[in-house]
Amino acid sequence: IKTAKMGSSQTTHEDSGYVNENSTGLLPVLPLEVLEEMFLNVPPHQLVCVCRLVCREWKQLVDSDSLWRKRCRREGYLPCDAATLPKDWHLFYFLCIKRRNLIKNPKAEDKFNDWQIIANGGDKWGEEPVREPHPDTTVQRLFLTSLSPCLKLQLIHLEKEGYSPSFMDEFQPDIVISDWYAPRWDCGSQYEICVELLNHKKKTIEKFNPAPVIFEQWNDQKWNQMTHVFKNYGPGVRYIRFVHGGKDTQFWAGWYGIRVTNSSVEICPSVDR
What we know:
Elements: E1 3-6, E2 9-12, E3 18-20, E4 26-28, H1 32-39, H2 44-49, H3 56-62, H4 65-75, H5 89-98, E5 116-120, E6 126-129, E7 141-144, E8 150-157, H6 165-171, E9 174-182, E10 189-198, E11 204-208, E12 213-215, E13 224-230, E14 239-248, E15 259-268
Helix pairs in contact: 4-5
């Protein structure tokens, strides 16, 4: 330890509250709880990409479950089931802050932009304002189908959305699917959905393809939600292919088929559903 004379007394770096860590410079020695509180106010990516690289002690703190558990609680990211805690709070936090709907234009707010029409039967796809109120009051528009099959597609490129191949292969986070659909009250209709997890060659790794849902004429035209969670699907997932649609079952001219809106695909922590 170097010393320096100040008047008649000697002061060391250690005495003044500084240590020389790995010859990289002088770092203040702070109580752990103070340093942790500072880190809780640093943007998360700076913690990982900058602070973690400063010294061994900072790396240990940034890597600690305690820091990320406190950060989750402070920012309101909590498991739905309090009895089931995350195994890795660091991973849980970053999945929470990245979580968003990967489907573009899910509520017909931008007509058919971002959708690929793959079946356009009868009088073709249409879109209109919601007539029967949706449980989510932000949903104000919907897509509607006609007398022959109408199907539309979105292909989600996971790496472009920020989920790297190494991340998907190592952690295999839950992939949560949701779609809302409703019939007209005065016409029978059919709803269908198919969601596939694809590899880099766009070959199917896993598929969700339930039987079509049939509605009889003179129904209550209520909104229904279709959900599915892909879990433990193995390595190699690079794309998600989302297809949905349907038709009416009475072959009426116009748009009397199934209505769909508010579709979503989310990458989620496994304990947060």
